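Slide 14.
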Amino acid sequence: MFVSRFLTFEGPDGAGKDSVLDVVVPQLQQHLTRELVVTREPGGDPIAEKIRELILDPANTAMDDRTEALLYAASRHQHLQQVIEPALVRGAIVLCDRFVDSSIAYQGAGRQIGETAVAEINEFATSGRTPDLTVYLDVPAQVGLERIRSKRKDIQYDRLDQEEDAFHERVRAAYLRLAAANPKRIVTVDAQQPLAAVCADTLTVLKQHLAAYWQN
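Slide 15: predicted structure.
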């Protein structure tokens, strides 16, 4: 019997997730024998996208840290109910750019409101839905921030981009803890490598995990 697959991509700011996905997704679409649904968080659904705008708007400087965490969880529940779960039920493979790990890292550790507390909020929001595989693109915080700053000199940062370096250091440390605690689910790819190497390593991981649905 076909077992639905739920895959997520994670990484600190500047890890290059968008660039890697731009390369990887067409390869998956070409080789997978199952429908591929590509989505993102926060967002992925019209209502969840509205919540995304609210969360990331740099004008919302008065937003409380716990409010932010709850909004992420609310957006995630909506997205899960409207996009992810229906796709899994019909047998699709779902690839989601960020999921619960991001909230644990960014709000739990980055905002320092507690990784366990944020995990519990999201346990309720997701009814315990966990990815089958998470590809974590790892890059030191300073390297990631330098990449962002070099590319966004003329672009307004969102609320998370504007955080101090220590915030991003805490985020990366939390990701490393999550990877160490979940070695069967989370596969780490060195994102300091040249983009071509990162994409190749990522495709190798995905091909191994999706071997039953891969055709040459």
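Speaker note: The chain has one domain: 5-213.
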